[in-house]
Amino acid sequence: ATLMRSLVKKRVPLQKGHMCYSSVSTAKLFIDGKFVESKSPEWLDIHNPATNEVIGRVPKATHEEMLAAVDSCSRAYHTWSETSILARQQIFLRYQQLIKDNIKELAKLITLEQGKTLADAEGDVFRGLQVVEHTCSITSLMLGETLPSITKDMDTYTYRLPIGVCAGIAPFNFPAMIPLWMFPMGMVCGNTYLLKPSERVPGCAMMLAKLLQDAGAPDGTLNIIHGQHDAVNFICDHPAIKAISFVGSNQAGEYIYERGSKNGKRVQSNMGAKNHGVVMPDANKENTLNQLVGAAFGAAGQRCMALSTAILVGEARNWLPELVERAKGLRVNAGDQPGADVGPLISPQAKERVNSLIQSGVDEGAKVLLDGRNVKVKGYENGNFVGPTIVSNVTPDMKCYKEEIFGPVLVVLEADSLDDAIRIVNKNPYGNGTAIFTTNGAAARKYTHQVDVGQIGVNVPIPVPLPMFSFTGSRASFRGDTNFYGKQGIQFYTQIKTVTAQWKAEDATLKSPAVTMPT
Ligand code: NAD
């Protein structure tokens, strides 16, 4: 709460339940354990997406500031990587409790900067918190392997060790969850961490940094810089940075993967998506329609795992009118308003882009069954709102199908059979998530085995794995070898040292040099 007050100065209530800010505050850099004002001449405005009021400013950190941040990470690495694993574990045990204690404050900040509803913002924190909870099992997760007696008197064992300074580049859509996929996993393994939050939602990351400091993380173990392309290029190029975790669009992710890899870094890049929900005619109708609507329009469709494409198989095509009725029931409003289901999009540009993709569907022969383009939200006329939109008669060659819309728009295709549906899904370049809705186990099994997508739900619309598993998006939704969090996350943030040791008894000492390969 104290940090929120310092992030955003003097609040003035405009109307019940809604705040505006009389003076604009600035997002600080977090360098070597201090929250410092940037000396940058270049600043970006932060907007409340529900009103488009400027609520703060974020700097594009200067080159010197970015150097200071990475130098701080490098210095801290020497001691942090040698700190006992139990001490690191204790910090994250305290951290998860502090996040729990502050979940409502974090959620308020997310709603203010990102726009999603307060309940959904709590979910954003909660799903990140689960990763932090999982890091508390580091004493098991970092275990090496041993194989005794590989030959006489010789044992082999491995240590899992940190790799150095790691960096994270985050998107706007999950201001808490995605940074929490990044630095806690990296740090608990003994790495130090440089985070660049999305320049559109920096506040939540700053509050998470403060809580981590309160949990006892030593100065320099986490540093935070702000900015856009220059900051990203700095991270991709700086030789002290050994690994980069990225989440965001394909345009940025492909670029970062290429530039970071060329510089010899490990890169894991989670990118865009087009997630299909395949509805079989034998599915539980009530359940399926509710799940589809929730997963397509929740968070205003600004989730990489949003179920943005429905494929209605056979007779399930007759469910469209009921699907539309359910979507009509959702309430579009500012995220902090009671009863809001669908909040605003992040920016006027995002709204314009979503509207133009809807229009492209119309121009190419699709039918708009529910049109959210002209939605009016009383008291929030300047917000970036688009209401739930359902576009039917869509075919795979249409722009609204090919592009990730990232808004509250469900595009609907039809298929004659499960095989046809699988063909459509596998032809789409993305492989983040998908779901099948059915009561037929054999159909579900066939789908999960034949569909080329990394995360599959069976009657589960948004199958984001819990942190004991990993976030396994695939194909155009991911670049890299090891995925985020879970065992793969530990693998990404560690390297393995293998020791082969021989302890011979005195009487077994070699009598002459061995010049041939041992057999
Ligand atoms: P974005 O790519 O615009 O921004 C992400 C980060 O990259 C930001 O920190 C930004 O400063 C930086 N960036 C932006 N453009 C860049 C460029 N051209 N070069 C270098 N860096 C750049 O993404 P966003 O709009 O913040 O987030 C939405 C996107 O993220 C969607 O495509 C969504 O599917 C994707 N996403 C994917 C996952 C996943 O797990 N696969 C999760 C969340 C979001």
TrEMBL record:
Q: Which CDD domains match?
A: ALDH_F6_MMSDH (cd07085)
Domain named Aldehyde dehydrogenase: residues: 35-499
EC numbers: 1.2.1.27
In alphabetical order, the GO MF annotations are: methylmalonate-semialdehyde dehydrogenase (acylating, NAD) activity
Class of this enzyme: oxidoreductase
Family under the similarity heading: Belongs to the aldehyde dehydrogenase family.
This molecule's function is given as: Malonate and methylmalonate semialdehyde dehydrogenase involved in the catabolism of valine, thymine, and compounds catabolized by way of beta-alanine, including uracil and cytidine.
Stated name of the protein = Methylmalonate-semialdehyde/malonate-semialdehyde dehydrogenase [acylating], mitochondrial
The primary gene name is LOC113060523
